[in-house]
Amino acid sequence: MKLAGLKSVENAHDESVWAATWVPATDTRGALLLTGSLDETVKLWRSDELVPERTNTGHCLGVASVAAHPSGLIAASASLDSFVRVFDVDTNATIATLEAPPSEVWQLRFNPQGSTLAVAGGGSASIKLWDTATWDLVATLPIPRPEGPKPSDKSGSKKFVLSVAWSPDGKRLACGSMDGTISIFDVARGKFLHHLEGHFMPVRSLVYSPIEPRLLFSASDDTRVHMYDAEGKSLVGVMSGHASWVLSVDVSPDGAAIATGSSDTTVRLWDLSMRAAVQTMSNHTDLVWGVAFRPPGASGVRAGRLASVSDDKSISLYDYS
Amino acid sequence: MACLYIPVQNSEEEVRVALDQLPRDAADILDILKAEQAPLDLWLIIAREYFKQGKVEQFRQILEEGSGPEIDEYYSDVRYERIAILNALGAYYSYLGKIETKQREKEEHFILATQYYNKASRIDMHEPSTWVGKGQLLLAKGDVEQASAAFKIVLDGDRDNVPALLGQACVEFNRGRYSESLELYKRALQVHPDCPAAVRLGIGLCRYKLGQFDKARQAFERVLQLDPENVEALVALAIMDLHTNEAAGIRKGMQKMQRAFEIYPYFAMALNYLANHFFFTGQHFLVEQLTETALAVTNHGPTKSHSYYNLARSYHSKGDYEKAGLYYMASAKEINSPYEFIFPYYGLGQVQLKFRDFKSAQSNFEKVLEVYPDNCETLKALGHIYVQLGQTEKGQEFMRKATKIDPRDSQAFLELGELLISSDSGAALDAFKTARGLLKKGGQEVPIELLNNIGVLHFERGEFEFAEQTFKEGLGDGIWLAFIEGRENFQEIAASESILQYKDVQFFQQLQDSGRQVKLPWNKVTTLFNLARLQEQLHNPETASILYRLILFKYPDYVDAYLRLAAIAKARNNVQLSIELVHDALKVNDKCPNALSMLGELELKNDDWVKAKETFRAASDATDGKDSYATLSLGNWNYFAAIRNEKRNPKLEATHLEKAKELYTRVLLQHPANLYAANGAGVVLAEKGHFDVSKDIFAQVQEAASGNIFVQMPDVWINLAHVYFAQGNFALAVKMYQNCLRKFYYNTDSQILLYLARTHYEAEQWQDCKKTLLRAIHLAPSNYTLRFDAGVTMQKFSASTLQKEKKTADEVRSTIAELENAVRLFSHLSAASNLHFHGFDEKKIDTHVEYCKNVLDAAKPHLEAAMREEQQIRQRQEVARQVALAEEARRKAEEQRKFQLERRKQEDELKRVRLQEEHFQRIKEQWKSSTPASKRRERSEIDDEEGGNGEKRRRKGGKRRKKDKSSKSRYETEEVEAEMMDDQEDPEDEDANLNYRDLASQNDQDDAEENAHDPLAAAGLEDSDAEDEAVPSTNTGRRKQAWSESDDDEPLERQPFSRENSPELQESDEEVREDGHKPNGNAAAEDED
């Protein structure tokens, strides 16, 4: 289990790169890397050479999140001005522009079935679900406020929702908030199930294991990655080692490893059987905002790939084996 | 059977007296002697016989009778016998005086003896035996010189006079001239080969003193052959045996000593030696009994000194330092110069060291050093004392000398290292390493304290790997290894319980129940703690936490472990658990200043302003105000209080500031090198506008803070940046903020980004400002004030762009886009503020929205104008191009022909173009002036704003600056407190508010001026401002929150780093030092013989 640097693109964007995801391969082309940046653009890159495929403009105030539909045909990007732009990957035609004021927009995720786009709703303390056929807002899943004497000030902003993740079967949705709690929802019934406690600082990234459907990984500003049994409400493991916030986490397609990106400028690879970091990549010079494993390719591309993007304006590609 | 015959007067008969049957009553014999007028020599013989039989009374009676005036008269011509009787009496009293211990009686005896000898001298002043007697008497009195004179008189008359020879020998011996003494003894022996054993004893002692031990031994043995009960010889032999330093020798020596003791239980030297022996066997009771007896039976100074010393040592080793000190002093008093017997000075020095009477200890150790200039132990002790007296250099000098004298003395290196720790950690590390090397080479086990110190030094120098190795080496094998290497599986726990995970020690119980041994020897606790601390530093807080908990499982009173766990919990923002842990620590010691300080920080974090102040007070009181941290915390508290009351009550502000300054100064007085206090003082100065001074202070603090991993002071960087900012040096300020962000915060601190943005804002670098704010928003998404600020920035940018004389259509277009974004941001905020509590009110946002919309409207004509202009320019260019083309064609046609003409025409053409331009210009002008009334107003307002901006800015400059300052200082304070802390997350909030206030108020003012006609809006604005400052009910909550958060962080962080660390390190040092002491004490004790 190791990572080997393949290619880095310096100044891939004019400004900090804040988001990255892989657009799955289609019949006509291989997988593409989708990145979003403070420079208000979204770029598409062809691997393995990271050849720039196209630059999409149209966002204001910096692109904070990108997501790709499992079909690989459409993708979505969201910026700090709280607009979500859904576009055709190959033509860049705008399919829809979504907004649900006053809710702002943070992380975006299509469900594995491709029928729904989940959007972390920030200060609205909820997740917005959009139907990918009609692009209508179909549901709002609010995080129940803790019954406290003063719901107004502190707790309000602390339930600020930053991150979302779908379980592999699409039945569960997890979201992470500023105060560190993780909330689990039953999507079909639109019902809040329970909280997962353990973090007390913002959870900026969540991901379910593709192999074990109950296993959820969370990355938090408290420098740790937690491993939860999301159904059993138990903390299965704690992985610490980053020197600063963990900004991003992703699971390898084989489910044996996770990669994390941190503000300590490193990318780490963790062996889940050992629950320990097995490799630390320090090629970035600033906060690593995103790490993403390439989904197994339909067109026979079997080699594992990991991409990372950073405030240093660069993107990097690694071979994962 | 020996018989004595007393001749009967006037007859041939004799009275036969059997010497072994002398009558009990001496008077019977005296009657006979007197009656028969027996020759005096018979009197003497009978008296001597009585003496031999131990009948001292009878002896004295006869002699006194025999020296009475009647006898003098009757036997006036019998001179020698009379003298002999007197001399016998003299000798008897000399002896009595010699053995008497009570001073008065002693003197009386000596006086009597002197009288008898004088009487004898009066009979015949040349009688040698009288002189010998006098000499003996003088010797007994300790008057060596006169004794010598007396003996010399005899020897001048008869150089072979044995008693005089012996006396002189004794004199020489006492003078320390052993070879002369030996010669005299030898001569005595030659003259009188059958002389008593004592002569040989003298020879033996001389030889012994001369170092001829074998011959001395022969002499002593010979004495014992002659007189098997000669105690002195026995003791002398015993001492020689003891000095062989071999077990067998010592055993033999002790046997002899015991025999001597059995023969004569009052021989002081034997008693001393026995006491000495029992000291080493630890039978202190015997030591005391023996030495007390010895003291009772002797008056001999050096012997008494030994006895006292033995006694002192016994008490010393029992830990009764006061008594030990007294006896050491008594011992030292008994000797004339330290050269005779140095040990009591050493002991005294040690005891005084123990009582921290360094000056006296120093003088005593220096006496020792005078005698033994190369004694390592003494050098080390002195080194230690000098350090304690603050003369570190000298202390190190001594220590270095000690290591130089014995480069294999690991102990010396160890102590040298300890001395160097505070001043030169590099050299200390070298010394420790040398000590470790020496110990290893010597095959000795390296003490864990030494390894601990090496580890800590590596740790401090940031050499974490070495530190970890060393700590592990010190710890050896144990249960902890399983945790460090992660072999022990993480226990799956319910997520809801994970909150309390750091308190959980059940885990170890389970391990124990499942048959694993959970052991932790007490001497490894400190090292384990340090290792845990290292794991924290290495970003393995989980490992650290488990190690701390292991410590607590075994030693539930280990306060520092609770505090570290609390610090880890706090770093994770788990305030509740952190407080619980601190309370656990306080359960162990409710006066622990560290725990109290930490509790104070946590209370601040929980908004408990008043409680926090009380807690800090308690912490300060618990240490009599000597705990700098508590004092600093109070100072910071006051500083915040000052800032908080800024607008509300200037008087209060001044008081709080003064108080803060006073507190900082107090700390500085106690610890002139306290960076945090200096920083705090700098902040107060900056607050008062003394930027140059504060800048100097900050710069110095910054310099001092670099180079130690435990001193992380981002605050001082920020403060410096603030000062640059306040002085208008924006470029430097930006650089400083950026460096600070990168160096201390991994670029994650949105608060500093806010400062940075503010600097860009002041420098009118709108795009940089906006980008910076966007970054901050991305880092801290729930901080809505950042959005507000971003909105304001875009608004400002647009307004300033529209103000520009020349602007392209693109510029105007992007301006409009910015304005739209701003409107969107503001309206988002406006909507969001219904839901949440962000710290600004809707009305203000609405005002901004209104304003932006107005500007937007105003911008549209600008855009049109710009576009039209562009179009016209384009058209003009087109025309010009066509004209040029036509000209070209014409020129080609008429090239030669109408050169002149053509040129004129060209000029005409140009003129036309110019005219056209002018025309456009005019149109433009018209555009400007012909905008509809409302718009015009708007525009002029804008103009006003723009034009007035600079002025206004300048005008407001003072005010704003003040605000800046305050916000700055706020940061600073936070920083101050934050001193060590890393995450300044909370301060952000507070500052955000402040900053926001600055920006906002500025805006408000602008707006207010612009919208003066709109009283409602103005009122609204005012309101909001007023609220900010004045309405505690609504706003204090928020503000407080902000402050408290910021405050908390700093101190807390600080706590972990500065406070907690130092105790722990100190602790380890102390431990080592203590260890050092003990050996020292023992060594000293052992030294004695």
TrEMBL record, chain A:
A GO cellular-component term linked to this record: Cdc73/Paf1 complex
Pfam family for this entry, one: WD40
Keywords, ordered alphabetically: Repeat, WD repeat
Domain of life from the UniProt record: Eukaryota
Ranges occupied by WD repeats: 10-45, 56-97, 98-140, 154-195, 196-238, 239-280
PROSITE patterns xrefs: WD_REPEATS_1, WD_REPEATS_2, WD_REPEATS_REGION
Protein name per Swiss-Prot or TrEMBL: Anaphase-promoting complex subunit 4 WD40 domain-containing protein
Species per Swiss-Prot/TrEMBL record: Carya illinoinensis
Lineage: Eukaryota, Viridiplantae, Streptophyta, Embryophyta, Tracheophyta
UniProtKB/TrEMBL annotation, chain B:
Record region (Disordered): 923-1089
Basic residues compositional bias, start-end: 952-965
Coiled coil spans: 876-918
TPR repeat ranges per the UniProt record: 162-195, 197-230, 342-375, 376-409, 714-747
UniProt record, GO biological process: regulation of DNA-templated transcription; transcription elongation by RNA polymerase II
Keywords: Coiled coil, Repeat, TPR repeat
Tree of life domain: Eukaryota
Transmembrane regions listed in the UniProt entry: none
Name of this chain's protein: Protein CTR9 homolog
Lineage: Eukaryota, Viridiplantae, Streptophyta, Embryophyta, Tracheophyta
